Task: inverse folding
């Protein structure tokens, strides 16, 4: 049977619109941090590129975005250290620690939120939903980014992969996030931007809305997100939230936090 491109578009739109309905009544939202709350991947790439260039990595050729996405983006620093320095893990750990300090200097100067973040934060607060940040970033990075975005009081918990038995893509950090805020996976959804993060959320049993901030859409879709959005202004997101509310799926308790 031949299906027109218009019919495919409509079907995809209908699927994303109803993707959250089963969560009604929704009680919580979990967020990744890097690339999900803020477009921080360019800052990470900047820091890695400069510091690897200093030590002559890759024959003195700057690492490009493809290398960054394949070997670094969304991964825990332990794994990055092993990937970059397979013969000297301790050197890799020292390098990633120094890189994070450089990254934090860049954050203070250049960090910007994902478009529409304030609108979504207000939607969540107005309905009194629980919320936590769940990240593979070091705690110092996560807390700095959240602070720079004005969200320190918004999040009721910050879960860090290195403080869990396993980081993402293991589901443990997201399950720990649920426990920390007293929410159930049957009534919670997640925002994520990396393949490993989406895999972690799906494995934890929750719908994941993927952000195509920097990672290729085909790689994100391989991990089976509920649907993808460009940013928090994306009409697909607001159509899904509106449909959820039609099902009595979001509270109306005002949250002053």
Result:
């Amino acid at each position: 049977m031949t299906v027109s491109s218009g019919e495919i578009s409509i079907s995809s739109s209908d699927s994303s619109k109803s993707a959250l309905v089963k969560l009604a009544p929704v009680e919580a939202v979990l967020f990744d941090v890097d690339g999900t709350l803020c477009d921080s991947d360019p800052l990470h790439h900047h820091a890695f590129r400069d510091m690897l260039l200093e030590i002559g990595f890759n024959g003195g050729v700057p690492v490009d975005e493809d290398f960054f996405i394949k070997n670094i983006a969304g991964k825990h620093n332990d794994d990055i250290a092993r990937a970059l320095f397979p013969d000297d893990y301790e050197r890799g750990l020292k390098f990633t620690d120094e890189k994070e300090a450089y990254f934090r200097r860049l954050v203070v100067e250049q960090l910007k939120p994902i478009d529409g973040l304030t609108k979504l934060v207000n939607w969540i607060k107005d309905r009194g939903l629980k919320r936590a940040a769940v990240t593979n970033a070091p705690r110092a990075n996560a807390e700095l980014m959240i602070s720079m975005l004005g969200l320190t009081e918004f999040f009721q918990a910050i879960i860090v992969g290195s403080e869990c038995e396993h980081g993402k893509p293991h589901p443990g950090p997201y399950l720990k996030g649920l426990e920390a805020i007293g929410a159930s996976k049957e009534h919670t959804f997640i925002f994520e931007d990396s393949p490993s993060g989406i895999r972690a959320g799906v494995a934890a049993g929750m719908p994941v809305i993927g952000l195509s901030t920097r990672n290729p859409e085909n790689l994100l879709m391989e991990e089976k997100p509920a649907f993808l959005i460009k940013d928090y202004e994306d009409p697909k997101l607001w159509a899904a939230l509106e449909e959820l509310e039609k099902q009595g799926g979001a509270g109306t308790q005002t949250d002053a936090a």
